[in-house]
Amino acid sequence: MAAPAPNADEAASVVEKSEQDLRVATLHADLVAEDSSPNAAQGLVSALQTGNHVRARMIARTVQMNNPDVLVLTGVTYDDAGQIAEQLRSLYFAAGQDGLEGLNYPHMFTAPTNSGQQSGADLDGDGMIGGPGDAIGYGDYPGQYGMIVFSKHPIDEENVRTFQDFLWRDLPGASIPQGYAPLEQSILRLQESSLWDVPIEVPGESDHVHVVATALAAEEPTQTQAARAEDIRRVIADYVDGSSWYLSDDDGQAGGLRAGDRAVVAGAPTLSAGEDSDEPRSLLDSPRLQDPQPGPVTEEPITDRPGDPEQTHETATRFMPGERDRRSSLVLPGTGFSVSGSGVFWPGEDEYGHAVVDPESTFSLDDRLVWADLTIEP
C-alpha cells in the first residue's frame, strides 16, 4: 500500500484545525464482512485482528490525515460484543499508518442496526420469506451496515438516544407505498440502519453538543426504499427543529431537541443510486441546520482531472463508476454554530493522500471523508 507522496505538500489537501474548533467528520467505510452467513461479523473480526486489513488501514489513513475530533463512521458491520469498533480504535486509528501519527479516540459509541435483521415477512413480495429484501433494513446478515461514533471528548452515554424501533406507520404522513398488509406495517420500522442522538461533552461548551448520527442501509434502492429514505430525512429535520412530537426513542422518551440545544447532523442520509436527486432538500432546507457546502481541499481543480467533469461535483463524496458522483455523506452543523471551515478530502494526483481516493486503484476508498470545523466559544 502506497504511502503519502514524500514530496507532497500537506497544505494542498489537508487543513490544520484551530485549537478553538471542534472538527466533526463522517466517512462511509464500506467495511463489511465478505460472506452472508449469520456469523459473518466474526469473519470480519478475524480479518481485522492482524492490524493489516487493507481497507481498514485506508480508512485509518484518511482519518489520521484529517484528524477529526468526532468521527461518524458509517457502512461498517456491527457485532454484539463491539469488537469491530474496538479493533478499529486500537489496531488502526491509534496505530500510525505509513508514517502518520496515530489518533487516540478514548470514547466511542455503537449500537445495533436494523440492517439485515429479518422481519419474518415477505416484504419484497418475491413469494419467499428471507433474504436482504425481507430484512427490516437491507442486508444479507444481521448488522451488515452499522455505524460507530468515535470521539476525543467524553460521550454522555446515559443520555444517548437511539431510534431503532420506531415504526414507519407511526410517522404522520408516512410515504409507505401501497401493498403492505396491516401485519407487515406493524413490523416495518422507519430506520433502515441507525439514527442516534449522541451528546458529547466538549470543553468550552456549557451544554452538550448533540451529534445526530444517521445512515441508510440500501445498496439497490427500490421505490419503497427511496420513499423511506426521504421520510427518514424528514424525521431528522423535525428532530433538530424540535417538532418531532410524534417520535419516540427506544426507551420510550418522546420528542426531539429542545430550543437552544446545539446539534450537528453527520452521516450518510442519501442513497447511492436510484433517487431522482442527491440533494436531500428536507435537511438542507431545515431552518435549524446550515449547509457549509464543503468542497475539495486541493490545488488541482476537479474540472482539470481525468474523466468527464459532468460526472462529478465539488461537493460529491462518493465515486460512482460509470455514473455521476454523489453527495452521499453530509456534515450539517446547527445554525447556532459558527463554521470556520469545511472540506471534502479529495486530493488530486501527486497531492498528499491521493492514493486513498485514487479512482484507478483497487485499494482506494470509493467514499471521501467530509468535515466541518465548528468554533467553540468559551
Automatic annotation (TrEMBL):
It is an enzyme of class 3 (hydrolase). Pfam families: Exo_endo_phos. InterPro entries: Endo/exonu/phosph_ase_sf, Endo/exonuclease/phosphatase. Residues 269-334 are annotated as: Disordered. It comes from Garicola koreensis. Keywords: Hydrolase. Transmembrane segments: none annotated. Residues 51-267 form the Endonuclease/exonuclease/phosphatase domain. Its EC number is 3.1.3.8. Residues 302-328 have a biased composition (Basic and acidic residues). The keyword Aminoacyl-tRNA synthetase does not apply. It comes from the Bacteria. GO terms for molecular function: inositol hexakisphosphate 3-phosphatase activity. This is 3-phytase.
